Amino acid sequence: MIRFEKVTKSYPGHPHPALDNISVDVEKGEFVFLVGSSGSGKSTFLRLVLREYRPSQGRVYVAGKEINRLAGWKVPRLRRDIGTVFQDFRLLPNKTVTENVAFALQVIGKSRKEIKDVVPETLELVGLSGKGDRMPDELSGGEQQRVAVARAFVNRPMILIADEPTGNLDPTTSVGIMKLLDRINRTGTTVVMATHDSSIVDQMRKRVIELENGHVVRDQAQGVYGHQN
Amino acid sequence: MQLRYVFSELGQGLRRNLSMHLAVVLTLFVSLTLVGVGVLFNQQAARAAEHWGNQLQITVYLCRANDSAAVCPNAVTDAQKTEISQVVDDNPEVADFHFESSEQALDKARELYGDELFSGDNPAITAADMPQTIWITLDDPQQYQGITSAVQGLDGVSKVRDMREQVAPILDSINMLQWVALGTAAFLVFAALLLVANTIRLAAFARRKEIGIMRLVGASTLYIALPFLLEALVTALIGVALAGAALWGFMYFGIDELSQNRLKFVPWIGWDEFWLAAGTVAILGPLLTLLPTLVLTRKYLKV
């Protein structure tokens, strides 16, 4: 589903590449934690998947497409196969929960009927049924992140990317979000989650890829956050 | 594609940036009006030049019967005409020439001053009052002294008039007005372009959250840019409409009034020329807003 082949990404003006010759393969339906300190290359990894950047060297394949060669006008198509969740939720403050989720479908041209069917279904999946008419500022942080997850998942993408989704949440709420991501993963969606949250990684026992200074220093099935023995 | 969303975004965008849009509309209005006025002056100059003869032409007036000029004891004879045309034909500076009969001159005058002077049982002016003329086009308009002195003094020539001396001041002032209008318009067009660019930057900034999410969820570039393009189009159309109305007023209260009541001797432009000016404005207006929008949305809204 996601394949990095000897990928290097350097930014102009930086002596060391953000990612240095890394090769990673993520299968369809996998749940992968991307761990490492700030500046280790996690965000660059995610941005390459989203084709916000192109690799400086090497090849990146996402959902069967080689993104190096993907023409600019085809990028929107690629992103419709990828849902994205951020630490800071990124909801539209002047839209209700329903409208926020519907927005993601409206702007890719889905019919009103389809939106009407799918949005409440997705809100129910994330545990927000009955709160569709609330504004984002009337919700708790955990609920806001659920809206963001609903928005990312409403188009049933093949891949869900989560960049520190629990970074702004307390541990109890975080567990709820992780259960939600796990449930989404069980529907067959590949989930890649960058995180600093060691307790979550330790609890979930999923595959862990650790980055350090742009290198993969660990790639472990059913790993934990800290160093292995 | 959900047009409802696009139009609600359009309405919101127009309201959110009202003062900027107003500035764009007003600048477009004034600059487009000036462009239109420049086109009208240009047409006016062309029409005047065409009517009064090419600016390079020299007119040789031949003697009439009862000519007031001292050099004309009698009306010009056919032999004299042949002699004169021979001299003109032989002159190396002459590109072309043709005779104009008294009747042709009368028709021209009738066209210019209206029928009433020329009709009725005892018309004020008849063909006999109009001199026959030879219209000479020169190869090089600067070299008119040669032909003038060659023809002047021949029997049957009443006077030689260099057209440019008569018409030049009027044409010059029309030309000057044209360039003043177009020159001022150029500055305002530049200002309009800058305003459009700033408006888009503000709008892109105001919408940055929406745009960020649209990009993430895979909205097409056109879809993201569409509200911006529509905003640009709406402001352009309002500017064009205002400029068209101003030009119409200029024609209706200015040119029409002048041409019907005063300054009748000038061949004034009519509504055909108005439509040309209005058409120019109608094409230029949307271009002025849509082109910078297309360029800048590519820059600001890049996926």
TrEMBL record, chain A:
Keyword terms, alphabetized: ATP-binding, Cell cycle, Cell division, Cell membrane, Membrane, Nucleotide-binding
Superkingdom field: Bacteria
Mode of membrane association: Peripheral membrane protein
InterPro entries per record: AAA+_ATPase, ABC_transporter-like_ATP-bd, ABC_transporter-like_CS, ABC_transpr_LolD-like, Cell_div_FtsE, P-loop_NTPase
Subcellular compartments: Cell membrane
An annotated Gene Ontology molecular function: ATP binding
Coiled-coil spans in chain: none
One Pfam family cited in the UniProt record for this chain: ABC_tran
GO BP annotations, alphabetical order: cell division
Occurrences of domain ABC transporter (ranges): 2-228
Main subcellular location: membrane
Family assignment from sequence similarity: Belongs to the ABC transporter superfamily.
Its biological purpose: Part of the ABC transporter FtsEX involved in cellular division.
Assembly notes: Homodimer. Forms a membrane-associated complex with FtsX.
Protein name: Cell division ATP-binding protein FtsE
UniProtKB/TrEMBL annotation, chain B:
Keywords in alphabetical order: Cell cycle, Cell division, Cell membrane, Membrane, Transmembrane, Transmembrane helix
Domain FtsX extracellular per the UniProt entry, residue ranges: 56-160
Cell cycle found in the keyword field: yes
Membrane topology: Multi-pass membrane protein
Database matches in InterPro entries: ABC3_permease_C, FtsX, FtsX_actino, FtsX_ECD
Pfam families hit by this protein: FtsX (PF02687), FtsX_ECD (PF18075)
Gene3D superfamilies: 3.30.70.3040
Transmembrane segments: 21-41, 176-200, 221-254, 274-296
Keyword Cell cycle: yes
Major localisation: membrane
Subcellular location: Cell membrane
Domain ABC3 transporter permease C-terminal: 185-300
Family named by the database record: Belongs to the ABC-4 integral membrane protein family. FtsX subfamily.
Subunit structure: Forms a membrane-associated complex with FtsE.
NCBIfam families: FtsX_actino
Protein purpose: Part of the ABC transporter FtsEX involved in cellular division.
Stated name of the protein: Cell division protein FtsX
Lineage, top ranks: Bacteria, Bacillati, Actinomycetota, Actinomycetes, Propionibacteriales
